[in-house]
Amino acid sequence: MNLPFYDEVDVKASILMPEAIHAMRNAFLALSNGSAIVPNRINLPMEDQNALHLSMPAYINGGAYNTIKLVNVHFDNPQKGLPLINGVILVMNAKKGNPLALVEGKSVTALRTGAGTGLATDLLARRNSKRAIIFGTGAQAKTQIDAIRCVRNLTSIIVIGRSEEKAIKFCNLFDSIVQPGEMSDLKRADIICTATTSKTPLFDFEDIKAGVHINAIGAHQADTRELGTSLIQKSKVYIDQLSSSQIEAGDLIIPINEGKYNWNNIEGELGELIDKKIAGRTSENEITIFNSIGNAVQDLVIASMVFEKNQT
Amino acid sequence: MNLPFYDEVDVKASILMPEAIHAMRNAFLALSNGSAIVPNRINLPMEDQNALHLSMPAYINGGAYNTIKLVNVHFDNPQKGLPLINGVILVMNAKKGNPLALVEGKSVTALRTGAGTGLATDLLARRNSKRAIIFGTGAQAKTQIDAIRCVRNLTSIIVIGRSEEKAIKFCNLFDSIVQPGEMSDLKRADIICTATTSKTPLFDFEDIKAGVHINAIGAHQADTRELGTSLIQKSKVYIDQLSSSQIEAGDLIIPINEGKYNWNNIEGELGELIDKKIAGRTSENEITIFNSIGNAVQDLVIASMVFEKNQT
């Protein structure tokens, strides 16, 4: 007996971005209304390998599947020409308990992170948003672009990477709307996505224009961030889940620890916005931020869809 | 791409009990000397399914593999004719991070639990032990018998089940040395294994003879036990790992909570005994107990062996 293994090609062939964005509604709703069961992840250090293993199970009450994403991060891998991250998701039958399939993890992570941004952008960005800027040139940056293009008619997408060379190479994956750019382009952006491993702010309030929507998805440790303190202070901030943001969302934790921000200052969770329990954008001049650290329930929803799409 | 899946038949064909017993030396040594990395397991409740999911990762410093055992327990399954427990173990390359194989979980659990008993019995039971009694007629009871036969020349193995019918059926899996019996047989036993789901003591000090060795492997919740308080008080008790026993070993936690026993009263961990840091049996009349709740490092060692044996 072999379990089916759905690899990156299968994931991409199974789910288009608009479907993934739509599926995120249920994921974030479940997270906010308490029907999602997402324990704190296990972090198993493998110090002698300069690596760590993460285990992230999830279930939504009433659902047909439970899943666990299993990730190994090997920090020395890139210098050996090996991938930094290896991940798989095991899909199980929640009603009977038996394992059903493995799904490649990184492609699901990229798809669901993009889809979360797509949903948040659809809910929060100005309708007439035309220009976007993306920070980052990795797998996450790719799906950020795919996602925001699904929900707004963009005429320009500027990419800023750590080197111009990387940005040019990355832009060649797309059509001519996507072009490398510079920090000075920030002032014209209607939508900004940050998908980097930066530990310090990429920009702050004075660098951007009024009315922009920002998706900050790169930082997910208490001591790293992509956004400056005054930007956080002057924006409407939406998150994926309060309990996990309080542990991992450096973009918010750092200003809070500095006494310059407070958890009471955030608007709330994306699921509360979907559920109309909190307000979204109420003027053309507000800055809105979706600060996402990512959640295993998003993996659950996407991996389950990959499995279902491949049953005939 | 498919990962290889080694099922129950593969597990049994790959590793014989004597090899498994030998492998447990490294597992228990690693547990006691600190080279095993075994975080607390995740327990994800799926209350609407009357089920739970358990995630149990493990790694030994310097090892070639890291593993995680993923178990679903569906309490309504047996009445539907489905297995109570479904489990798989994912074997990963600890040096590079990539997933390598899946191994069926229940067969590994049964093999490693038996092997732990085999090792403890070899270290603690009297050399001339001839008669054994087994409580239980399930998969765990089966490997308890296989294991103790590997380390002592037994002339009689008595099985006690919840019904005589179950015991007879179970004994038919073995040769004529294994026979159903009664509680009165306890007084003649040199080795006793308890592998039941009993919540209350199966027997106590007055029911057994001097010099017996007991393997108690059935209870692994703080409020369930197989052994009576006075038996615990009057025996030399060895455990798998102090930190996990303090959470899950009802055989010890219940007497301790009653004020009748103390963690200082135990002899120590099996790994400390292997490492000669603590003494084992020092007289023919002592009662020795191996109280095991099971540990993910045992799964790591056995699942890794299954993977290695199947590489050619």
**How many extended strands of chain A?**
15
Strand-residue proportion of chain A: 15-25%
> Any idea of the CATH class of the largest domain in chain A?
Alpha Beta
Estimate the helix proportion of chain A, in percent.
Answer: 25-40%
Summed over residues and divided by their number, the pLDDT of chain A gives a mean of 96
Structural class, from helix and strand content of chain A? alpha/beta
Number of helices of chain A: 10
Named CATH architecture of the largest domain in chain A? 3-Layer(aba) Sandwich
Biggest interface and residues each: A-B, 47 and 47 residues
The sequence of SSEs of chain A as H and E is EHHEEEEEEHEHEHEEEHEHHEHEH
Determine the CATH topology of the largest domain in chain A.
Rossmann fold
Oligomeric state of this protein: homodimer
CATH superfamily of the largest domain in chain A: NAD(P)-binding Rossmann-like Domain
Radius of gyration of chain A: 19 Å
State the end-to-end distance of chain A: 19 Å
- Biggest sheet descriptor of chain A: 8 strands, parallel
Low-confidence spans of chain A: pLDDT under 50, at least 5 residues? none
Describe the structure.
The structure is a homodimer of 312-residue chains. With 312 residues, chain A is of the alpha/beta class. In chain A, 33% of the residues lie in helices and 24% in strands. Chain A contains ten helices and 15 strands. In chain A, the strands form two sheets. Chain A has an eight-stranded parallel sheet with strand order 10-9-8-11-12-15-13-14. In chain A, strand 8, helix 4 and strand 9 form a beta-alpha-beta unit. In chain A, helix 2 packs across helix 3 and helix 3 runs parallel beside helix 4. The first copy, chain A, starts with a strand and ends with a helix. The interface between A and B is large, with 47 and 47 residues.
